[in-house]
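Onboarding guide, step 5: your first structure request.
Type a short instruction followed by the sequence, for example:

Predict the 3D structure of this protein.
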Amino acid sequence: MVALSLVSVSRRFGAVHAVDGFSLDVGEGEFICLLGPSGCGKSTALRMVAGFETPDEGDIAIDGASILAVPPNHRATSMVFQSHALWSHMTVFGNVAFGLKLRRLPRATVAAEVAGVLALVGLTGMEGRYPRQLSGGQQQRVALARSLVLKPKILLLDEPFSSLDAHLRIRLRDELKAIQRRLRLTTIFVTHDQEEALTLADRIVVMNRGAIEQVGAPGEVYDQPRTLFAASFIGSMNLLPAQLVDGQLAAGPFRIAVEVGVVSALSRANELHVAIRPEDVTAEPNGEPLDALGRVEQVLKLGPIRLAVIDLGDGQRLKVQDMGRAALAERTPVAVHIGRLIVYRNGADPIEIVRGRAAAAAPPARRLDLPLAVGGR
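The system replies with structure tokens like these:
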């Protein structure tokens, strides 16, 4: 069942299109993450759902009924802000109970509801404390409790963990996901942190310059990014310009060459890039090159994973995820083997290539035989 629909929603601020033609259906109980860089329009989209911004075009509906004429305080939504926005002169109890008191509920009902939601977020016993007496994580829990106690149809969160340290951020996002699943609460979460989105979301909406680049499950967005922007924004990615050596991408067979420092003046219609995940590359010391030959410039130790930066020459570098099997060392000549890559034409039209076989990443599917020449000059 669709809980929330945004249909061709746009919002302009002067000549700037903050949100441009945004359309999305959110299922009941679904956890959606709006992901993108600062200024991409994700917070504006959230604020339009909350009623704090009014669309210039389009419609927003909850359970099939338009809410554009409904004021924010009467919408079936509740919002958690990045800044917490707690009343400094009110206790934890007062902050959480504030919305219920506006509804003129009986005192006993308010007390019971507040006690229940404080237990849910782990703040039992802190009812009498003031915000200044709480840690940042505790303040964020109060802000979440204040929204949950109103029992909204849709919970909206605008980068709620961005001001917290990394350890606390991980802990709170795990708690949030557990609460969301327990309550089966439709949730829209705005973030610029790809790790948060990949961890929390049922679906991720990748945004860029006010528009949607891709919508999909975390695994789909990571493994099959639909655009060059999505490929560059989600996870670590090697992006290299390329050129079509012979053949046609649409018909095959074809051959491409990654341009290592030698970028030809290609026409817009033939502009190509290849995207390669570090985990899809292996490097072997002193081996015979299959795809490219380079030299280890730097090795970064990230816990159990090592990330090697390979200098391909002429300023081009390739990140390789090294699990320690190859024992790569800096300044060591290596053979680079590429197991999977994606070719983008004009920043889109992705074609996935796996070990010399290619398949379109978007329907209609097409299989392409590929004599692959990566790293050619």
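Each response can be followed by summary notes, for example: DSSP finds eight helices and 22 strands in the chain.
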